[in-house]
Design brief:
The chain has about 350 residues and is α/β, with parallel strands linked by helices. The chain has three domains: about 1-60, 434 Repressor (Amino-terminal Domain), CATH 1.10.260.40; about 75-170 and about 300-325, Response regulator (Rossmann fold, 3-Layer(aba) Sandwich), CATH 3.40.50; about 170-300, 3-Layer(aba) Sandwich (Rossmann fold). The protein is about 40% helix and about 15% strand. The protein has twelve helices and eleven strands. The chain has helices spanning about 20-25, 30-35, 45-55, 65-70, 85-100, 115-125, 140-145, 170-185, 200-215, 230-240, 255-265, 300-315; strands spanning about 75-80, 105-110, 130-135, 155, 165-170, 190-195, 250, 275-280, 295-300, 325-330, 330-335. The strands form three sheets. The chain has a six-stranded parallel sheet, with helices on both faces. Strands 6-7-8 form a three-stranded parallel sheet, with helices on both faces. Strand 7, helix 11 and strand 8 (about 275-280) form a beta-alpha-beta unit. Helix 1 (about 20-25) packs across helix 3 and helix 10 (about 230-240) crosses helix 11. The radius of gyration is 24 Å and the shape is elongated. The N and C termini lie far apart (about 75 Å). Mean pLDDT is about 85; it is low at about 1-15 and about 60-70. This is LacI family transcriptional regulator. Keywords: DNA-binding, Transcription, Transcription regulation. InterPro entries: HTH_LacI, LacI/GalR-like_sensor, Lambda_DNA-bd_dom_sf, Peripla_BP_I. One of its GO terms (molecular function) is transcription cis-regulatory region binding.
Length: about 350
């Protein structure tokens, strides 16, 4: 009996079908369909066998068959952890604006609240020509690799990989520079606010923090592992005000944290930078208007989003793509929250 062709190994096949998945898993086509649609009318054992077979074969469900018949959806998929705070909105605006210039629409998916993110991303892939995802602990590596091989994938602010395009900003050098600047003001009880486990960008910023201390022959404190939201900044400030944490300077992993800490400390009677110096990361618009002005690292977030859309479109259309990850430079912006005079300059 002549069987249907089955893809083998890790190389995707353009002929991979639901029949291929069923044969690999040793189940019926109906069972495969139920599993991929999220039905609970199958055993856990069957569900795991079907998902494993779909992963091995890089199978994209054929719900998008009509679109595939015309080859392109003219849409880019963008997967972000959430949309709170200025970082994600800037990234989205940069990505969407560049995609629109390229004649593409954008389908946005948020990881927050998804119980089965891999399946949700697979479903998204049926409606777009390629996917860009943020390199964050909120978007596990399995989600990134699930579609690689069957759809173009670009990783934003993630670790460089030989098999997936990456667009990121420079982190370690600028973090070392801003920490060294704070240490240059004579601050010696310096804390880093942010969780290095939350993503490669925060991890690399903490690495720069440590490197600056090593260069000054000092021991770096362990990071204060908190999320990068306003509410977390206020909670951190309360710990400083209560004496639970002691510091004369704070290097924050983003401006949202830094600005929230500054506001809460001021409400608690502390003076920045006299009592404690505070620096941030991103250079959001508010950073230049608060008093004192926030010393920070300028990260071109919109450019990051636009570059990701560019790289994804190049992969989709088969245009030439440069080798290795694309790294966008960052720069130190000196204001007065670090202890410099108000007329501080940018460099």
């Amino acid at each position: 009996m002549k069987g249907r062709p089955v893809a083998t190994g890790s190389t995707p096949s353009s002929g991979t079908t639901i029949y291929s998945v069923a044969e690999r898993a040793g189940v019926s086509i109906a069972s495969v369909s139920r599993v991929l649609q999220g039905s609970t009318a199958v055993s856990e054992k069957t569900r795991l066998r079907v998902l494993a077979a779909a992963d091995e074969l890089k199978y994209v469900p054929l719900a998008a068959a009509r679109s595939l018949a015309v080859r392109h959806h003219e849409a880019h998929g963008l997967v972000l952890p959430e949309l709170s705070g200025p970082y994600y909105s800037e990234l989205l605006m940069g990505f969407e604006s560049r995609a629109a210039e390229l004649g593409q629409s954008v389908v946005l998916m948020l990881a927050e609240g998804k119980s089965d993110l891999v399946r949700a991303v697979r479903n998204l892939a049926t409606r777009v020509d390629g996917l860009a995802m943020l390199g964050s602990s909120a978007i596990p590596d399995a989600t990134v690799t699930a579609m690689h091989g069957s759809k173009p994938v670009v990783l934003i602010a993630g670790d460089a990989r030989p098999d997936i395009d990456t667009v990121t900003s420079e982190n370690t050098g600028s973090a070392e520079a801003i920490t060294s600047h704070v240490l240059g003001h004579g601050r010696r009880r310096v804390l880093f606010a942010g969780d290095p486990a939350s993503g490669p960008d925060v991890r690399d910023r903490y690495a720069g923090f440590v490197a600056a201390h090593e260069a000054a022959h000092l021991s770096a404190a362990e990071p204060v592992r908190i999320a990068l939201r306003e509410i977390d900044g206020r909670a951190l400030a309360d710990r400083l005000l209560s004496g639970d944490l002691r510091a004369d300077a704070l290097v924050c992993a983003n401006d949202e944290l830094a600005l929230a800490v500054m506001k809460r400390l001021r409400e608690g009677g502390q003076v920045v930078p006299d009592d404690i110096a505070i620096v941030g990361w991103d250079d959001v618009m508010t950073a230049r208007y608060v008093e004192p002005g926030l010393t920070t690292v300028r990260q071109p977030v919109r450019e990051l989003g636009a570059s990701a859309a560019d790289r994804l479109h190049q992969r989709i259309t088969g245009a030439p793509v440069g080798d290795g990850p694309q790294v966008i430079p960052t720069s130190l912006v000196i204001r007065s929250s670090c202890g410099c005079p108000p007329e501080g300059v940018s460099r």
